[in-house]
Amino acid sequence: MKTVGRIVHVCGRRMLVVAVDASQLPPLSATVVDRRHRPVGRVVDLFGNVKRPYAAVLCADRCEPQVGEKIFSR
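The structure corresponding to this sequence follows.
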């Protein structure tokens, strides 16, 4: 499992904005899980500055993770 990053914002009920480490960019459509290995959603977009990118994660259901939590990809 690789670390995707930390959640910086929850948009609505189903979208997370995650600050990503530039050296470990997740691929698009990567499955994202929380620290308990429960599925959260999928990476749908990568955006922002090259040095400080962000990822948009679309949650499968309601977003359970809170701001500041780390999320991971399989």
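The two ends are 5 Å apart (CA to CA).
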